[in-house]
Amino acid sequence: NKHKKIFPNMPKYYKGYILLRLRETGSEWKVVEKVRNLKSREDDEDEDWYVFYCTPIFGSWDILLEICLSKHEELDKLKTFFNIDEELSKMIEESITFISIKNNFDATKIKSQNLYYRAYVLVRLRKIGLEDEIVNKIKDLRSTEYGEDWLITYTSPIYGGWDLLVAISFSKLNELDKIITNLRSENELSTIIEETTTLVGAKQNFKG
């Protein structure tokens, strides 16, 4: 694991997500290289966070950061860093954040050594109160047909304007529409989902 400091009494993390919109296209990888290895100091016993994954994305935003953190408030500190860093503040036009309601992500588990594309599906429900039921229905779904290779790596209720976030790792870009269609239809979710939006990693470089 690239992050060695895991509190013994806090083996699981909240997941935070920051979406960035840049002032100009073409600087996506420059921003990724600058932020992808950010983490709390090893000698800081009050904070435990690190950037788990960062990628340019297709969609209405330019970059997505996926962050593991032990406390909700650590996400705001990281977002503040973008404003005070002179180089980043000039490149970033806008940002929004989402964070999981529960600290239920085990950062020590790697599911696979294959390289995947990464997609994030934000879900808004017609009725609140069904979040945990949906999570339990879909959290362990993965491909079962020959020639397909995809799995849901994380799903959680979230704060931040949407109700759920589903993270999917998949091997072929042309599989994604089928995966999302199946999620909605085969698991009887179409009647309770009001809206979804999908953010897709621009490169096949996610491990696990």
TrEMBL record:
Gene3D superfamilies: 3.30.70.920
Lineage, top ranks: unclassified sequences, metagenomes, ecological metagenomes
Protein name, per record: Transcription regulator AsnC/Lrp ligand binding domain-containing protein
